[in-house]
Design a protein that fits this description.
81 residues
Length: 81
């Protein structure tokens, strides 16, 4: 089994398990909303931090990221004011 398949199987299993439990009515609306909030505010930022902390950035790519990031921050600052 390749590494990609070995990493995708648990994700697909969790999706299928969630769909099955959702169809059976195990989760109420309030539970689903709470889980969405946990994923959006804790799990996803943590996952992104871990993923980006493992990336090796060469000098040219770092400058590219800075050239994309800085104008977005300036634009956001102008729009939010």
């Amino acid at each position: 089994m390749t590494i990609a398949v070995a990493q995708i199987i648990p994700v697909l299993f969790l999706i299928a398990l969630g769909a099955l439990l959702g169809k059976r009515g195990l989760f109420s609306f309030e539970v689903v909303e709470g889980l969405k909030q946990i994923v959006a505010s804790i799990a996803l930022p943590a996952l992104l931090f871990i993923a980006f902390s493992r990336v090796y950035v060469q000098g040219r790519l770092g400058m590219l990221a800075l050239n994309v990031f800085a104008p977005v921050q300036v634009w956001e600052g102008l729009v939010c004011w």
